[in-house]
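Continuing the series of single-chain predictions for the mutant panel. This is the parent chain; the variants come on the following pages.
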Amino acid sequence: MLTGMFVYICSCPSNNFVYVVTAPSGICQETKSQMASVAIKEPKAAITPKKKTKPSRLCYTPPTNIANSKKKILYTRYDCIGEGGFARCFRVKDESGNIYAAKVIAKASLQNEKTRQKLFGEIKVHQSMSHPNVVGLIDCFEDKTNVYLVLELCEHKSLMELLRKRKLLTEPEVRFLMLQILGALKYMHKKRVIHRDLKLGNIMLDESNNVKIGDFGLAALLMDDEERKMTICGTPNYIAPEILFNSKEGHSFEVDLWSAGVVMYALLVGKPPFQDKEVKTIYKKIKANSYSFPPNIPISSEAKNLIASLLTQDPSIRPSVDDIANHDFFHSGYMASSLPDDILHIQPVWPSTQSRSSFQRNLDYVASAAGVGFGKSAGTEKNKPYALKTDEGDDDHMLPSVLSPRDRVNPVMKIGPETKPSSTKLSSIFEAARKTSEETLPSRVKALKEESRSIPKSKLTRSDAPDNETRTGSVSIANLSDNIVWINIKKTALKIGMGLESRPVASSQGPIAAKNILFITKWVDYSNKYGLGYQLSNESVGVHFNDQTSLVFSADENMIEYITHQKNSEAKHSIFSTSKAPDALKNKIYLLKHFKSYMVQNLSRAVQDETLDDIDIKNAGSMIFMHNYLRTRQAIMFRLSNGTYQFNFVDHVKVVVSPSVQGIMVLDKEKEKMVFTLEEACWFTDDLRSRLKYIREVLESWASKLESTH
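Parent structure:
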């Protein structure tokens, strides 16, 4: 009879298991040894190796309220919208209601100096970027626990998510997306920045399905165009062969073009060309340049040829960005000016045919906006990246002060005014008259004229006349409701269209009197708190407040006009002498004076050699004001209450379209002022003609949107 149980525990060092043996106390030692040979194995948990903590897991959910204490900006944190290897991303909203994405990096993951310098480099490179197809870096700050990068929110996520849902894209979609990708790369390379991690997951889409390239964690800055980088880095499917196999010779901008070729292939086929489960196999395929196009997927010969030129082993013979944009792939098939909203779920159905003029117009629009193509550029020049060091003697902050300024708050963005123009006469600038075509005017002109005549003139009679710029008893474009404003906008677009379709003409009338074109000479954007302030060329000053009201000072400050903008109804105007303004406007008048003082003290006069008579200061009593403004990828547009449209382009060229398109004023990059008739402007230079095409497109799009809401 068994009287008890013995438990034997034996360990085996070779496999980190312990052997647990139980036996009745009456069994002999030999039998117990035999039982041990077939004992049950249990893992020895105490010595199991620990997994390395993912850096992003060190980032816990931030508090609901995140504050940039130095700039006194408060963000409200919402849901987590993504997680990477080193950071987590949350949706945040500032006090003005703007929604962004906050990339949160735990300081606990930045204890290593190399890791910190890598982050600092990423921030500084990203801060130097300002391009319509690069994710905008809005803010950068820290608290005791985390570093925060507040980024432009890309509502439609990345091309990776798009491809997961759609499997593959159509060639018109790829044509549109690739032009924007190329525009961003051209901008980066011009700033001597190599992205080095261009892939589907780092190419985002905004709410309009425009490309936004992000994540500069592996980006490199070259000191000059001849420098080569030696670091082996990137994502396996997208790494260029010279990074992997020619590390001694180094690599440069061409690695991004290889990655662009991989991206293009993946969009058309549904997966990268060298994809495999094993990384070593991927590298072998890259070295052998081993890829093929699936026979069951229809891909044009132009697309295959472009991909082949990008996936060339020798980086020295890969085409330049502008050469790529001039490839036959971008001059065949269908060219879209934008992508439909529902591309995330449904494959677009494109028209089977497209006129050459429509194709070229859309191509010019997309390429110009992205800044790709010979002679085209986009984006603005910001501070250049440079080497960073952590501030010494500052235990409370990890970020260098150049990345997160601590001693100043400057939310107002000032735009340099137009300076004194050169003395060159317009007669010597205007090129010789172009040869007049013997052909009849295109039928498009006739169609445009008929469309213009179809607009109900009864609604426009009073607002079209330029002499409606009187202060009282008149009707300007601003007095009309939104139901009619779209007609004015469309009519302006049609007139510009007719000018663009007209025959080339020589300058026969001489310069138009510049004093009749009123325009904005200075402006400051404080819309994150109050509104946008501006000064007109007649020296009157106004503010367009965030609550959809405007306040305007006459040039002599004797009169004030208060305007309440109301949707679908006429704007309400109230005019007071400065001494009799109601108390209810006291705060806004104070702000208006503050805006004016700032512009007077910080912004020089627009055209310094013009007298007050030249800018027609007597018209200050008309109280023309900025009715509203619109930001596009290429410019900021101001619409004045007298029907003037002003486009300030990102490259500092300004184009002003006078009421009824009677004249076009241009302030070029050298600050030279020129005024033309519409026909002269349309044929002055290819650059100005391209800008007028863009202006027409924007106005047409705006008018269509307003029309569709009524």
